[in-house]
Every structure is written in C-alpha cells, then in structure tokens.
Design goal:
The structure is a homodimer. Chain A has about 200 residues and is mainly alpha-helical. Helix content of chain A is about 70%, strand content about 0%. Chain A is built from ten helices and no strands. In chain A, helix 4 crosses helix 6. The longest helix of chain A is centred in the middle third of the chain and has 26 residues. Chain A is elongated, with a radius of gyration of 20 Å. Chain A binds a DNA duplex (18 and 18 nucleotides) through helix 3.
DNA sequence: GTCTATACCGTGATAGAC
DNA sequence: GTCTATCACGGTATAGAC
C-alpha cells in the first residue's frame, strides 16, 4: 500500500529459501548456519522472522497439505462414477504436486522426530485414507479389476504419484509439462503400459 | 568353529540394529547416542566395531545395491522379448525390496550430504539407467504403448516399486505376501487397474 | 531488520581402565 | 568387548548494539 518493496525478507519469502535447502540437505541435515548462508543474512536475522527452524517446517508442510485437501473438496462436489472421481483426484494430485513441488516434497519426506513432523504425517495419512475410500467405492461399482486388492492398488497409485517429487522439474527447467505427466500417470494406472493389441 | 555364540555384537549384527534406527529417525536424525541406546551398549563400544556412523551407512547401502545389481545379472542371462525381461526385472525388484527391506529403504532415502551418500546415489542412478534401457528396448520392439514417453514410464514404474519401502511389512507382521505384491505391481504397471471390459 | 558475540547443550569421536 | 570420562566442535537459540 505505502512503501515501495524493499529487498528484505518476510516469513513468506524466507520460507521459499528454507524449503529449497531443506529439500537439498534434508530437514535434519540442514542447520541454521546453512539457512543463513543460503538466505544471505545472519542466523539471528532468521530468528527475527520465525521462532525457529521448526516453524519453517510447519509453514511449508501446511501449504502442501492445504493444496492436497483442496482436491478432496473439489472431488466431493463432482458428479459421475466413483472411478471418474478417482481419475480426477489422481490427475489433480499430479497438478498439486508439480505446482507446489518443494512444499509437497518436504511433506513427503518428514520422518516423525518432532511434534510438527508427527502432525504432518498424521494429516497426510488422513488424506490417503480419504482417497482410499474413493477407490473402494470405484471397486464396489465394479469398475476396478478384482484381482488386485483395493488397498494395495491405492498404495501403488500413491507411490507412483508421490514419486514425482524425486525427479519432476518444471518445463522451464527442461522438464515435462505437468499435463503430460498427469496423462501418463492416469494411463499407466488405469490402462497399463502394454500395447492394446497385446491385452486380454 | 570353536567358541559357542556369545551374546555380543559383530559389525554385522550391529548393522541390523543401526539400519532399523536410521530408518525410524532418518540418518541425520540419528545420533550415536540413539544407536547405543538401541543396541544396549555404550557409544565407545560401537566404535570398537565400526570406524564411525558413516561406515554403518556404507555397509547398509552396499547390501541393498548388491541385491539390485544382482537382478541385472540374472536378466542379462535371460531369453525372450525385452518386455518379458522388463516384467521379470520388475518382479525381482519387488522381491529384493521386500527381502532386503530395511537396507533398500535406507538406500532410497539418502540425500547426498556425505561422500558415502553421494556414492550411493550415483550407483543407484546407474541401476535406474540400466533398467531404463530395458524399457527402451521393449518400446523399440513395439510392446509398449506409444502415447507414454519411455523415460517417463520408467520413472513411474520405479516410483511405484520403490514406494514399497514406505509401507510394506512382512507377512509375519500382518502384511502382504511378496508374491501378491509383485503380481499387483506387474498387473497395474502393464495392464492397468481398469476392468478389462471397460478397455479399448 | 540486520548485525556480532555468546550461552549452552548435544554431537561424533577418543583415551584408557577393566 | 565393554565401560566411564572427556574432548573439540557445531547445533539451536538469545542478548543487545546499530
């Protein structure tokens, strides 16, 4: 509103730096010294913006969780078969993962050593549970093959989607377009890699 | 040969304890104090068996890598189409992951902060590369669908398989049989989750 | 909002007795 | 092979000047 932007940190801008370093070195492997070097300010200056290292973690995983739970709100409002909703959620998960890549990456890597980490893991489990229910509904409607356990299928689809954080890079950096990835994930998960003629 | 087994540690038995703790708390999040508590011996006693924390990591990831590269030796000797070899490798990867679960888990989680971690990541990339070549061969033989990029497909299959370490527990602990999991992975990867009648 | 200086504690690792 | 005692260092976090 008033002052022209100065080149100084806010908790928000500091967060993007911290998350990048957390993902490079791991949360436990990152010291406040590492963060201060990466941000170009001293350790004490960081404490001016946040109460400590764990607050940075909390802010980051919150952002990731908000994105993921937002998908469920959308899917809850959608019509059609359960399978269609599952495909929609799968596609949107890919999009949220790629859009919020560093934040989701961090979320998927927390181990549970601190209270914040355990909270993050619990919320994540909630999300997984909600998606598992959708797949179960699709199976009940007879749209999923019966020779693969539903719970097992859920785990595997999650594994495939979540693995994006290990290698996905934005198109600007020479990576795949997020739609291309979402298409590939949905095709692989629901129709498989084998050519159509070889099926049956 | 001579003495009856005493209840004392060897580098080997100590390793299994260390790997468990590493996987629970993360490598960086594990202190020698944590290890000594878990092993029931003092910190200095650990140093009698190994030169330091990093040696435990090196031994663990070596074991995992040996298991994985062993698959390539088997596959290299096999006959048949490239697709058949890919399916075989996929199945064997699931088996090695489940058989050597704690060791592979640790391998898949290293971040690259130390020399040992970077070495492990490099060897892992080698393995991924070798499997990617197999998929490429299967694609060249026309057995993989053309509307999913081969490199992308490789990443996704790896993601699905590797995600096992996040949730798989041995059948004795109430988990799935490893064959059941391998079947599910191969079915999902190559034929998809959708019921056959819905295909086309 | 950023800095220097520092408190205080847990870390990986070692010395040397038993 | 295991222990207690100890070291030097780096960790998170704080105090107080500018």
């Amino acid at each position: 509103m008033t002052t022209p932007r100065r080149d100084t940190y806010t908790p928000e801008t500091l967060l993007s730096v911290a998350v990048r370093v957390f993902n490079e070195r791991g949360y436990d492997g990152t010291s406040m010294e590492h963060l201060s070097k990466a941000a170009g300010i001293s350790k004490s200056s960081i404490y001016h913006h946040v109460v400590g290292k764990e607050e940075l973690l909390r802010r980051a995983v919150s952002r990731a969780l908000d994105g993921l739970f937002g998908i469920l709100d959308e899917a809850g409002a959608a019509r059609g078969t359960a399978l269609a909703r599952v495909e929609y959620v799968t596609r949107r998960m890919v999009e949220v993962l790629t859009d919020e890549l560093p934040y989701v990456t961090l979320l998927l890597r927390v181990r549970g050593n601190t209270r914040t980490e355990r909270w993050a893991m619990e919320r994540r489990r909630e999300f997984d549970q909600r998606v598992a229910e959708l797949l179960k509904a699709a199976a009940a409607e007879g749209d999923l093959r019966a020779d693969v356990d539903t719970r097992l299928a859920t785990r595997l689809v999650f594994g495939m989607v979540n693995s994006l954080v290990e290698w996905y890079r934005p198109p600007a950096g020479g990576g795949y377009d997020r739609t291309q990835v979402a298409d590939a994930v949905v095709r692989l998960a629901f129709d498989g890699l084998r050519v159509q003629s070889a099926r049956g």
